[in-house]
Protein 1
Amino acid sequence: MGQALCICLRSAITIDNKRYYFIQKLEEGGFSYVDLVEGAHDGRFYALKRILCHDREGRKEAQTEVEMHRLFNHPNILSLTAHTFMERGGKCEAWLLLPYISMGSLWSVLEKLRDKGSSMPESRILHILHGISEGLKAIHDKGYAHRDLKPTNVLLDENDRPLLMDLGSMNKARIEVRGSREAMTVQDWAAQRCTISYRAPELFNVESHCIIDERTDIWSLGCVLYCMMMLEGPYDLIFQKGDSVALAVQNPVSIPQPFYLYSAFHDTNRCKATLQKIKFLQYLVVAYQW
């Protein structure tokens, strides 16, 4: 992992001629850091995502993430407040200034429920599912796919409104694969950018002549729905045990007993009716041929 440019306690940074004060670190990943900063001009908190750009390709990918944010103005997609590229001593970072959502991610909410031995109410699941679906619909309507939908990439605000984040894996929804070389390129890309336990089956073994489209997001959406009900993804344990997720996704998922606590999903007909109430999820019903 490369070293990030140092931001010291209470030091000030400037983006688009506005000053922001560093408060604390929030997250640290392999190629990015997220800091909590405060706007000197408005006193509001923001999340500053700093992406390490090791080369020209890395800078291009960061620029693509910026462009994806700017493409959307939707209540269920995290907005981009400002951005800049910082270069010091031969190092380059992309700084993305984002709204700070204090509730955190959907995954952090689910973890707290699991720790308390509780579960998420059916009405809350459907509310969050509806918002995620609306965000996906906006992305798909523009001809793109998210490609890395998972509970850690969904934020929840104080009103339980879900916001899709981490748009760095987004690309054109429809990818036409022509030949084994292109198939391997797509497969390698998916291995790097699409989280394994939420990755659609067609991305594990890409066929030589096929079309990859936005239905990869629908698979991930189904895994997120499962996670909200079970407090863990359908393939999380398989991955944690070191077993083959690629093999597991080819077979039906066994539904644990707690699933039946959710009356809306208890029988197939009612499950259909519930999903049909969420306009975009008609796609889910058709895609899985219920």
Protein 2
Amino acid sequence: MKKIIIPVIAAVIVISTAISIITYTKSSGYRTQKEIADNIIRFHVRANSDSDKDQNLKLKVKDAVVSYLQKELSSADSLDDARNILYDDIAQIKDIAQTVIKSEGMSYNVDVYFEKSYFPLKTYGDMSFPPGEYEAFRIDIGEAGGHNWWCVLFPPLCMVSQSYSVVPDDSKQMLKNVLSDEAYDTVTMQDLSNNRYRVRFKYLTFLNKLFD
């Protein structure tokens, strides 16, 4: 009887522990993602289609708008400041995008707006943002049926050049200033390198004794 009961007890403990760990991980991950989302504004430029011509146009629109916004947002000291500047500049940003489109001999409509929606895991340079709902400032070109280009407008992490594979340290510092250590480590993926979230089974010793 003991040989039957002990494995059953052990199995129950392992399953219970696994459920607790999964529940905690999901809860902790949600809190971290929400903290990140509450402190940033994403920027998305969606192309008319995935044709080479439309994708190249998207990048040219992005370059022009990011160059403009880098100056405009340099005075933003908070998320609210950045949001207000963007709202005030919607018409100007739309004009910039349409000017680029016309200069390329195209006549797509442009929509510029804020949205809150779910985004999958995204990596920008050497930073990754967990999946979840985020506030985004968005430019839709034409049918907006193509892949998008994205970055973070606030704190200012957008880089005009495509040659950068690492976000500059001063930009990272701005992000660090508005996030907890845990959230910042998640974005910069430091939690993976220092094993902060390694799972330790505290029942392991107890289970070993059961099977002795």
Protein 3
Amino acid sequence: MMKNKKNPSSPATPYLIMLASFIFRAFYVSMISIYKNQHDGGTPFTAGHLGYITYYINNNAFPNFDVSKVDQFWHPPLHYFLTANFLKAAWYLFPAQNGNYEIAQALPLLYVTLSIYLIHRSLRLLFPDDQRASNIALLFAAFQPSFLFRSATINNDALATLLTIAPLYVLLHLIKADMAEYDFFNQRAIFLSENGKYGFHLISKLRISKFFHIFLMMLFFILGMWTKKSVMLIAVPIGLVFLYEAFNGQKKNLITAIVLFVITLPISLGWYIWMYLKWNIPFNFVWNLEKPDMAMGYIQGLSPLYRILDFSPAHFKYHYVFAGSNVNAIDINPLTLLIKTSANDLWIWSYVDGKVMKLSYIILLLRILFTVIFAASLIILIADRRNKPITHIKNKLAIVSFTITSLVSFYVFAFQNPYICSMNYRYIEPIILCEAIFVGYLASLNRVPRWILSLLTLLLCVASVMKIMYF
């Protein structure tokens, strides 16, 4: 493989980054119990995510009771069904491990690893001539604290993230295929005259490939909706890209997408329709968030505007989320909570001191700096008119619309459900792909010296690794 003369970089570099991050996350998974650092994990003998998995181990069928009455059982079943059957297979193959639920952590570790690989492939699509920018962005994504936490959690977040990033990657790949096809069809008369039947065969192959791309997106969407309903956010960038094509004379993709979407929609909504028809459970149901005494940090009475504009220093008194109430609420701003949970999750790191606490503050500071970088990159990207893959109108439309949709969804959910626990980075974790793209984009511009971005990214990696080692 030839190296780019302007930006020489070994082709092995991204794979070394991914391998190092995998070893880091695997070490964390091997160290953390399945009962520690979880979100609503429960136990195999109670409710929660582990209880839901156990239900499928014992029954292998949909619950035959009102799922709104049992913690976490209202979630779509795909993740729990897969985990249950993975555990049964592992226990059958390794009888000595029978009843050991720790094995289940291998699945989220796999899901996060695949997500990071798809981020790498997406970055290569957008920065084909600038591998150094791509590598800086990959380094940022691969050592994200959020991906670290998710590698050991047995809830449905890791699979939902993978099944959101996957269709977005396929969309970016389809856009690249469309760009190549456009260049090809502009010269097809010359091509056909020189290549005869082969030319017609290639045209047919391109069209089949486009159908396959759209089919893959719809398949991932179905699987995602049967994992977690937040995956529906990916429908916005996909729909906008196809609408843009339709308004610019490319209606075939839109027609294909509409036909497949009409078939896809009832299948993807199957679980939610079943819950509504059987137990009258609404689509937007969230267990416990209608019970102030059952959820963490009830903060009703504070207006959305007050919460948005409250940037008091008290927000950063703690490196973790402070779960207070109306009387002593500190973490009420959705943006500051988004940053804090991306760095140190919820209460998980509240019981640490010494070096681990200092490293947690360093990671929090770095995430604040990167948030500024994301905002600046987003604005510059929207205004950029250069002829580059990253600045192609359809790529920009996909990346920017998914970023904005995710953030709007986060704020709407935070205001509709006034609880501190309803504001967590994990609810929009697939946005890591867009964050990595923004880092790579800024690195490719050379407006900020690359060594600064590289240093900040490396500091985030080192702080994350040292935090786990000391922990």
Protein 4
Amino acid sequence: MGLIRRLRVTQRAMERARELCYEEIRRRTRVTDIAQRVAKLKWQWAGYIARWTDDIRRVAGSRWRQAAQDRALWNSLQKTYVQQWTSIG
């Protein structure tokens, strides 16, 4: 049984213990379904990672993985990125 399924089963069990329909409980408490929340967070993380690699390529170039292996070079690129980011944002 997958993690999301176990979380969903646990959430439903807690809702049944209250002897109310789960839609009614969610409407009153404004709690979202655990599976929907996990899916939303997963897509947010995917978007963050996609933007992160774009930002790295912009600062370090297309060979950023090789640059990351050279710690001194990577630290200087990191400082450059932080300076650019703080001046923009």
